[in-house]
Amino acid sequence: MMEPPRSPSDINKIWNAFSGALEGLHHLHFGAIDAGDQTIHQDITPENLLVSKTTSSQPYDVHFVIIDFGYSHTKGLRNSQDRWGIDLHGGQIYGSPESSHHADYTLHGRNRITPKVDIWSLGCVMSEAAVWIKYGRQGLEDPVDPRVEDVVRQLGNNVKGRDHIFFVDVSQSMGQHFRDITEKFKILAYLAKQFDPDGVEVCFSSEVPVIHKENTTKLQRRFNKQKWDQLSFEDRIGTFIDRIAIPRLSSWHQKIGLTKPKSLTIFVLTDGRWGGGKEGAAGVENPIFRLINVILREELSRTQVAIQFLRFGDDADGKRYLTYLDHCGTQYKCDCVDTKPIDGNIFDMFIGPINADIDGVGEDVP
């Protein structure tokens, strides 16, 4: 990101660049009216405004070009009053109120939208640009709850230097918790990046073994692109354990003593709804046992990998499965799993899997 302009003339150049984006929207919304067509973009975001340099050598002589029409819809107009478009569930962070799908009852339906949704989104982007011009990059950082800062101080060196990966269950039932998921991820990811020098990573169960490693804002936006329809959690977390977690425990340079594997904390965001009335943890315990076997075989500390299952909702079977997982390593003296409700103590979420006392707080015995 370039530094914000300081002189009035350079600031005006930024706003003039936005006039180009507005002209682009005009052509989308009205340029094809004579031909009887209308296009609504539905995903105007900073990432979808391409910065194009002019022939000038001045850094702020730029044009903004609208890109990524993946959510756009073009329709033929029946008359001049026919302005309604088909809602294709475009971006939500910069989306207008009438295009929101945050509420449970709007997750899968369609809203009535017009080209005004694009104007709203561009206005949001321009508001961010105004903050950037006034306060720089720091102004775009989310304000931090003082309670979160207090947790950072408490955690101190207890988790510093650990890798942190979020594994997100994107099943249909988890989609009902979409707003809570994104809000909690925002807080947890902010904390994790204070201690993880390599940056926070996210893996969605529908995309495993793909890992996303970006800044927190970009990671948050990836939640909006999930379909929340994944099935068979046992298979998905099994692939994650086998192809991502276990390989980090033994690489060739670690085997010959050049380095030690980095400690790893895995946050699993789930509701535990993996099928009703099943034994154990509905099969999810199997990849956990495979991980424990590798830890024991490599003679690593039980805290080498810490898995924290964070539970959304209060499904009875889900709670029972997660309680089983919470204790599945005790018989091998390698209890690397903890489970906490998502509205629980944030400090305990980070420390629970690596501290036996906190791991046992509020637990039920299976």
Automatic annotation (TrEMBL):
The keyword Membrane does not apply. It comes from Fusarium piperis. Coiled coil: none annotated. It comes from the Eukaryota. PROSITE patterns: PROTEIN_KINASE_DOM (PS50011). Residues 1-241 form the Protein kinase domain. It holds the Pfam family Pkinase. Keywords: ATP-binding, Kinase, Nucleotide-binding, Transferase. This is non-specific serine/threonine protein kinase. InterPro entries: Kinase-like_dom_sf, NEK_Ser/Thr_kinase, Prot_kinase_dom, vWFA_dom_sf. PANTHER family: SERINE/THREONINE-PROTEIN KINASE NEK, SERINE_THREONINE-PROTEIN KINASE NEK2. GO terms for molecular function: ATP binding; protein serine/threonine kinase activity. Its EC number is 2.7.11.1.
